[in-house]
Amino acid sequence: MPRKPAARILKGTPRNLELLARRLQAGDIVGVPTETVYGLAADALNPTACRKIFEAKGRPVSDPLIVHLHSLRDLAKVAVANSAALKLAETFWPGPLTLVLPKLEVVPSIVSAGLPSVAVRVPAHPLFRRLLKLVGRPLAAPSANPFGYISPTTAEHVRSGLGTKIRYILDGGASGIGLESTIVDLRNPAKPRLLRPGAITREQLTETLGCAIAWHPQRSGQIAKPQLAPGSLLRHYSPLTPLVIHARASVALAARSAPDEAWLFISKPAGTLSKNIYWLDRSGNLRTAARRLFAQLRSLDTKGYSKIHAELAGANGTGPAAAINDRLRRAAAK
Ligand code: AMP
Ligand code: MG
Q: Can you tell me the distance from the alpha carbon of 331 to that of 1, in angstroms, rounded to the nearest whole number?
């Protein structure tokens, strides 16, 4: 059998966008840029198209997909909104915030993993928005990587992970945020719950809604109740190299480890630096650190280290540190 060619990376020219919109309308899957991470998109209302996402990623069908809309006006076509949802949507859309709401019948059960709810978001990336408009339908899209590996933040990452399993990737440059969206469960609007921390912080959500947002970060050994947060598996976003996290790391601690172990700091550490020491942002800006985290983990994964040590972000893990620490904990989970 002839081997399938590797996916083509296309620039966002009007012609290419037209081509990709037609492919999506015909039921194909396409790699797309978003401001969070790259997604693997399909027509959200076409179950056959959505099934291809699960096959290409090797994703269990028990893990539901996020549905991307062109605008807030499209929300009523797929979900039952409530006033808390509208408040958050008006404040943070387009942007990196996903809302879980009761779904309408048009949303196929493969998208919601058989649940009566759907996760929705209006993305901010200009090319993805133009594509959504051209397609004229909502697009379901999880991260465009083999299930369990580090999420892609460039078109090249998508090609290296999914290679011949898809035909096209739209190139929108490196993702500006670099971590998956914040997910808020609003099925019971009186009791909003944070399902996944992201660039929109729990503090911002609390301020907008004027009420507390419950969050139960998972610890090793704990399994989330699937009916509450399906697919929120503890181990996720992992490099192949074993990863160990540290609440506090230092150059002195690194010097006591084997030289074939890498150390990843949030900011440039003080002391004598050896070549197995890396940092995400010289001055420790957490937004910049978040944007670079996945690309840095991928890069360290290819350097032949026997272990990667990573320092957690400070500030008690609140604000943007919460999302970075959540991804590091999951990447380190056994
Ligand atoms: P991602 O892995 O980025 O595609 O994120 C999808 C995540 O959103 C899932 O793993 C769930 O935690 C959450 N999610 C998606 N759809 C639903 C839904 N219908 N009900 C509850 N949570 C959902
Ligand atoms: Mg994912």
A: 37
β-pair partners for 201:
none
Same domain, 37 and 138: yes
Please state the separation of Cα 242 from the chain's center in Å: 21
Q: How far is the CA of 112 from the centre of ligand 2 (A)?
A: 15
Q: Which of 32, 99, 100 to mutate to test the pocket of ligand 1 (most atoms within 8 A of CB)?
A: 100
Binding-site residues, ligand 1, Cβ < 6 A:
63-66, 100, 112, 115, 117-119, 142-143, 180, 183, 195, 229-232
Residues 178 and 46 in one domain: yes
pLDDT tens per residue across span 3-34: 788 899 999 999 999 999 999 999 999 999 99
Number of compact structural domains in the chain: 2
CA distances for 59 relative to 47, 56, 179, 231, angstroms: 15, 8, 19, 10
Domain-embedded: residue 191: yes
CATH number of 177's domain: 3.90.870.10
Please report the DSSP string for 147-176 in residue order: TTBPPP-SHHHHHHHHGGG-SEEEE--S-S
Domain that holds residue 305: 243-332
Calculate mean pLDDT across residues 78-103.
98
Cα-atom radius of gyration of the chain, to the nearest Å?
20
